[in-house]
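One record is set out below.
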Amino acid sequence: MCVTRRTVLAQLVASTDAERRETTTVDALASALGVDKRTTAEHLNALVACELARIDTDSSVRATISGEELLTLDTDGVVLIDPPGRNGDADA
């Protein structure tokens, strides 16, 4: 199954809470998405680079408030979630 970064973010938001600092694990997230841990971790690392997710020192993960808010935006089109500098821009 192909999973998008948005799908990973949506599942992360559904599984965690930024304000209460409720977390999950990469394994649990991968299982809920039905994809392998490596794919999930790759998407999470990109979300962390965009400050939409956080990986704590104990390897627990959660969405940030910004990540939660991004999903509540009423967008008519596609929202690209790529870390800064991905297309050669220094801090775009």
